[in-house]
Write a structure and sequence with these properties.
Blueprint: E1 5-11, E2 14-26, E3 32-36, E4 42-43, H1 50-59, H2 66-72, H3 80-92, H4 110-115, H5 127-140, H6 153-166, E5 172-175, E6 181-186, H7 187-199, H8 202-213, H9 215-218, H10 224-231, E7 236-240, E8 244-248, E9 254-259, H11 267-277, H12 286-289, E10 292-295, E11 298-304
Antiparallel strand pairs: 1-2, 1-11, 2-3, 2-9, 4-6, 5-6, 7-8, 8-9, 10-11
Length: 309
């Protein structure tokens, strides 16, 4: 199947580029309500997996709540507030920065990047998730060493949780950019899982509440996930690398999308259009709906997405 064009980059009235992709909307019961493109083949959701993995960690004994649980679901920007809390969580569990399996990296936040003397594991955007993984091992009595290996008890527990939330077997296991196992499943499974996290009780409710209450910790200053959750009450949103975005409303309607070329720039306007399609007031998301294309230091175009029907 050739996926449809879901975004156009318009410069000076001329369509300069197009982005093809797939998008699915599921209802509260998990059934597909709208499908554009191939929403059944497996994809790597990348960091959109994090809320699902966090549910698995809570089921395995992690005791994070509130801000700390939001950070476990985060692709944070490495701003001082993110880094300070990650270090505190490591210390509380008797761990060190060197125990993190994620690679050293600079912060995503540009001012913090300029202030950084060198790349560090703790400033890598997945360090909150890895800290939660390590802490889960401590709480469950599992070995800390090798916690990122697919056959480690932690990762087996997380795979089970992801499969149960998506309602699908994991089609493939790879290595994510942070070094942790990465599970492949369909966009329909991803949307269905977000709908379940948004509406279910227990660990799902804890994850949803933490992310909704602390959107800055989930991403950071100027980031799309933070803007989406801050702009729509009750929204649960998490982006992933390579053009993935997933979110769910409190009523269980959920959306998952992926751009074929991995382009991130198309995700936010598509997310806003999907919210509008679902009847959500998107007036606070105007900047995300039609991102500006610049030329000569001034606006000369926009990224345009089709009206969903």
């Amino acid at each position: 199947m050739t996926n449809p064009v879901l975004a156009e980059v318009v410069r000076s009235g001329f369509v300069e580029s197009v982005h093809r992709g797939a998008l699915v909307i599921t209802g509260p019961e998990g059934a597909v309500r709208l499908a554009l493109g191939d929403v059944a083949s497996p994809v790597y959701p990348r960091s959109s997996n994090k809320p699902l993995q966090a549910v698995g960690m809570l089921r395995a004994g992690l005791d994070f709540t509130g801000e700390d649980l939001a950070l476990a679901c985060a692709s944070h920007s490495g701003e001082p507030g993110h880094v300070k809390r990650v270090l505190e969580l490591l210390e509380a569990a008797g761990l060190r920065e060197e125990d993190l399996a994620c690679p050293p990296d600079f912060p995503l936040h540009e001012p913090s990047m300029r202030d950084a003397a060198e790349p560090r594991r703790v400033t890598m955007n997945c360090s909150g998730k890895h800290t939660a993984m390590l802490t889960t091992c401590v709480r469950a009595g599992w070995p800390v060493s090798g916690y990122a290996a697919p056959d480690h008890p932690l990762q087996q527990a997380l795979a089970d949780a992801v499969s149960s939330l998506t309602g699908e077997p994991i089609a493939h296991t790879g290595v994510d950019g942070c070094g942790a196992p990465l599970f492949a499943f369909s966009l329909t499974g991803l949307a269905r899982a977000f709908g379940r996290v948004s509406t279910s009780g227990g660990p799902c409710a804890e994850v949803a509440s933490a992310m909704r209450s602390h959107p800055w910790l989930v991403a950071g200053t100027g980031r799309e996930d933070t803007a989406l959750m801050s702009g729509v009450e009750g929204l649960l949103a998490k982006a992933g690398a390579e053009g993935v975005q997933a979110f769910a409303l409190p009523d269980g309607f959920a959306v998952a999308l992926k751009m074929d070329d991995g382009a991130k720039r198309a995700c936010a306007p598509l997310a806003v259009e999907a919210l509008r399609y679902l009847g959500v007031d998107v007036s606070r998301l105007a900047e995300l709906r039609r991102p500006i294309v610049s030329g000569g230091g001034r606006p000369v175009g926009e990224i345009r997405v089709p009206e969903l029907r």
